[in-house]
């Protein structure tokens, strides 16, 4: 499965720009899952099965698995998604960034061990740290650009001199990825929903390149502003991530049904703004 092909198909066939982030915190699990050795897998699998027809992709965050020695459950989860929902791409949210030889190992981990369809990558060590991921042309490489955390401005908003004139650093990243790194058409960028003006600027710089947009829901990002700034002419181009608001919508044994309800509400709220009025 080519990540970009699957993503575009999901946008159209499921009428959805929603990405559900899988950030499992066992302390927040319903009581009936507490203490189970496979609690993380059981929780995430039920969320996936309840929401798969409503999303364009899933995004498991590796730290939430690794912190609980549950990498084997992450492997099993991605295997389950591919088996039960084969048209749903999986983004491994790892934000890797290291020298080339180490990056080669991270790429093998993401694409061979976990069998993810895409990975998030930190571009701030430069092209040679990203090349090992770009060497997998059918896999998505989603690069941090303008992140949703307040501290992102410490560095990303600095002005730098570039061949295209003076730009903010995040703008230079966006243009560099679009112009120089995306030869295989498998790149995307992370731009936070908490900064709609910057989403619009990135969209101006990169054309129709997909944007992964965290910050909707618990982080306070505005759906209407995000869509107005970032949608492409055909009303797609975005993977709008919601994690906590979906995962922990319910606290009882019906948690998966509650997650589905919130996912559907979020998808529908996004779709109201997909087409310019």
Which overall shape is indicated by the principal axes computed on the Cα atoms? globular
Helix content: 40-55%
User: What count of helical segments does DSSP give?
Assistant: 12
Residues in β-strands, percent: 15-25%
- Major sheet: 8 strands, parallel
Q: Biggest sheet, strands in spatial order?
A: 2-1-10-9-8-5-4-3
SS content category: alpha/beta
Order of helices and strands: HEHEHHEHEHEHEEHEHEHEHH
Distance between termini?
34 Å
* Rounded radius of gyration (Å): 18 Å
Number of strands: 10
Mean pLDDT: 95
Give a verbal description of the structure.
This protein is an alpha/beta fold and 277 residues long. Helices cover 43% and strands 17% of the residues. The chain contains twelve helices and ten strands. An eight-stranded parallel β-sheet has the order 2-1-10-9-8-5-4-3. A two-stranded antiparallel ribbon has the order 6-7. The longest helix is centred in the last third of the chain and has 17 residues, at 255-271. It is globular and about 60 Å long. It starts with a helix and ends in a 6-residue tail after the last helix.
